[in-house]
Amino acid sequence: MVKEIERYGIPIVHMATITTISESVGANRIVPTVAIPHPVGDPSLSPEDEYALRKELVGKALKALTTEVTGTTHFE
Amino acid sequence: MKLEIGRIKIKDIQFGDRTFVQDGVLTVDKEALAAFLKEDERIKDVSIDIARPGEKVRIIPVKDVIEPRVKVEGTGAGFPGVTTKPSQCGQGRTHVLYGAAVVTVGDIVGFQEGVIDMWGEGAKWTPFSKTYNLTVDIKVVEGLDTHTHEETVRLAGLRAAEFVGQAGRDVEPDEILTYEMGGIFEETAKYPNLPKVLYVEMMITQGLLHDTYIYGVNAQHILPTLMHPNEELDGAVISGNCVAACDKITTYQHQNNSVILDLYEQHGKEINFLGVIMVPEHTTLTGKLRASDYTLKLAQMLGADGVIVSEEGYGNPDSDLLMICRKCEKAGIKTVLITDECAGWDGMSQGLADTVPEAVAVVSTGNVSHVVTLPPADKVIGDAESIAVLAGGWKGALKEDGTLQCELNAVIGSTSEIGYHNVTCREY
């Protein structure tokens, strides 16, 4: 899906836990996430801290979306 | 370490007023077994039944399968750290009711339980159609949280296997198999010219009822660890998994791990079998990177020339499998992978979630997405309707006449990645 949407001309960010798979499929903008059962959350955190974590991840994704890249790039 | 497995061949199971084995017939006192299991106050009701090979019986939803055994000499009785006090497994003598199995059945907690058909088309796909099965269907008291519910049912299955296994204590086995292997330096001195081979066994350890236990320790919390192969053959490892039925390693399959048995067979002939590294499959990238690094390090410390890696489950653990492969191959350790494939109903999709060029020797144990049609049973043990919520099933998978259509995903042991199953490959 990542490749097809990008081929159509729309930039895309792959937020994923197992970034090695993102690399294999050839995603250009990769934001590493938390864990497979909860990619953009962390049930071990307090609701406030988890909200901050989620906001940070979305922030990274938006930054990635607006950054020019020439190949596979991780936004840590 | 020396382990003797005394096989008492079981040709039938009957109910009676005491539990014993005579002339290959296992008689079970079901009231006594139910009373024993109900000592656990979390259990409300126990329903015990028998399913024999060839009978038109369907068992669903199956949680675990366990081989009934008893320790007659040495330490390691029961399942140490789980049902009994911690003690060393893998030595002494264990009597096995060979050909019998305890099958744990219970309400769906995790949705990835499975089906066993004892006859016809379904029987072809699961190895547990050939065992005489004592089914233990457990209902728990109300108000248990899901993890406690699952634990209660799993423990009941293990305890049932211990209870029944006692029947083999004073019976002369039909056959005694000996598994003996000394220390790694000792064996290497004996076989200096044979290639040193390790078995790397990956285990599902992903929380949410997807866990494997070694001596009662949830393997989710371990670094990869070294075990003597005898330990797994003697009850050190149990399944706590609600993972897809087709490739979950049931406790029975740990007790009879085909990869260990085959490597043992070749030990001192073609290879020097060094032992087993148990590797947890984590849900984080950090965990996967750490576990694969640590596996390579252990393999190097042990001087392995080759490793056989088996996976449990599919999807994200494919990445662990390939990380181990890539790291070992790059370090000059030859690697063979054993995995199933999730290749779609037509088998045309990419089989694994990831690929690496180093994966040059891969054994496939079948396509989990393959669809089978299983004719109606005369009798269903458990709840036929549960197929609607099993992995590999769907709403409408159970037809009005009782026919079941599902993916192999839902059939216990159908694509076992440790090779304890019926599917084979043939090159034309």
Question: Which secondary structure elements does this structure contain, and how are they paired or packed?
Answer:
The complex is a heterodimer of chains A (76) and B (428).
Chain A: H1 2-7, E1 13-16, H2 19-25, E2 29-32, H3 47-65, E3 73-74
Parallel strand pairs in A: 1-2, 2-3
Chain B: E1 2-9, E2 12-15, E3 20-22, E4 25-28, H1 30-37, E5 43-51, E6 57-66, E7 69-73, E8 92-98, E9 100-106, E10 114-117, H2 120-125, E11 132-140, H3 146-165, E12 175-180, H4 184-190, E13 196-204, E14 210-214, E15 217-218, E16 225-227, H5 229-233, E17 237-241, H6 251-255, H7 258-266, E18 272-281, H8 285-301, E19 306-310, H9 317-330, E20 334-341, E21 362-367, E22 371-374, E23 379-382, E24 404-407
Parallel strand pairs in B: 1-8, 2-4, 6-23, 9-11, 13-18, 13-19, 19-20, 20-21
Antiparallel strand pairs in B: 1-12, 3-4, 5-11, 6-9, 6-10, 7-8, 14-15, 14-17, 16-18, 22-24
Helix pairs in contact in B: 8-9
How many angstroms does the end-to-end distance of chain B come to?
43 Å
Number of strand segments of chain A = 3
Unreliable stretches covering 5 or more consecutive residues of chain A? none
Oligomer: heterodimer
| Class from secondary-structure proportions of chain A | alpha/beta
| Count of discrete structural domains of chain B | 1
Largest sheet of chain A: 3 strands, parallel
